[in-house]
Amino acid sequence: KANLSTQWLGKEIIYFSEVDSTQRVAHELAKNGVPHGTVVITDEQTEGKGRLGRTWFSEKGKGIWMSFILRPSFAYHQALQITLFTSVVLANTLKKLYQRNFLIKWPNDIYINGKKVSGILTEMHGEQDQIHYMIIGIGINTHQITFPENLKEIATSIQQETGYIPKRIELIQHFFTEFEQDYSRFEGEGFMPFYKQYNDALYGKGRRIQLKQVNQQIEGTIMCIDSNGYLILQEDDGKEAKVVSGDIFF
Ligand code: BTN
């Protein structure tokens, strides 16, 4: 059992040496009523889930694969911003611990030296006016020295980029402490207090990108995000486009 200094986040930690997906287990537990802040963590996932139906490569002992349950008191639109909020907290934590320039690729990938080191998957359960629970899933590549061929060019690990061998418990402790502190502010004031920090860490500012959405594709230059968390792109005709969702391709 980890000895954490937090009030609610990680007070209950459920550990597996192997599981299909901590995200799936967390849903199961949440349905059965486990408290706000319960964490599910594993050494290995056989069916790790990524965003947009992708799989998440979760090799044994090479990373932090965890999901935690929130029972938020806030409204739906704020629930959409929690992913962005979580990225800020995670980037801050990694910067503090490893003294490198961790950036955020909108909406919620953590990058270092142009490669992805961590991803966040947020899922919610409930209706527009009442969220029953949210599951925040975080994958952090800590120890990989090599990646499979298809990931080599796009993924990296903390060890690979910094030479530092992260201690899982230390990283989690710092992240939970920071998340809990900032979360009460987020509950009260929303994303507003955090969007400047997000912009400071925004990856690819000034670069021309393609934004792929379900039904369309936009091209433009990354400007910033606004206080709601929307991405502002400048299109070639000079007009600004505000986007709520999608995937960035450089
Ligand atoms: C992404 O970038 O696509 C999000 C990746 C999220 C991966 C984590 S690992 C722990 C948790 N369990 C899962 O199955 N997925 C998330």
TrEMBL record:
It catalyses: biotin + L-lysyl-[protein] + ATP = N(6)-biotinyl-L-lysyl-[protein] + AMP + diphosphate + H(+). Biotin binds at residues 45, 116. The keyword Transcription applies. It comes from the Bacteria. GO terms for molecular function: ATP binding; biotin--[biotin carboxyl-carrier protein] ligase activity; DNA binding; transferase activity. Its EC number is 6.3.4.15. GO terms for cellular component: cytoplasm. Keywords: ATP-binding, Biotin, DNA-binding, Ligase, Nucleotide-binding, Repressor, Transcription, Transcription regulation. One of its GO terms (biological process) is regulation of DNA-templated transcription. The keyword Transmembrane helix does not apply. Residues 1-187 form the BPL/LPL catalytic domain. Acts both as a biotin--[acetyl-CoA-carboxylase] ligase and a repressor. Belongs to the biotin--protein ligase family. This is Bifunctional ligase/repressor BirA. It comes from Tepidibacillus fermentans. The gene is birA. The chain holds residues 70 to 319 of 319 of the full protein.
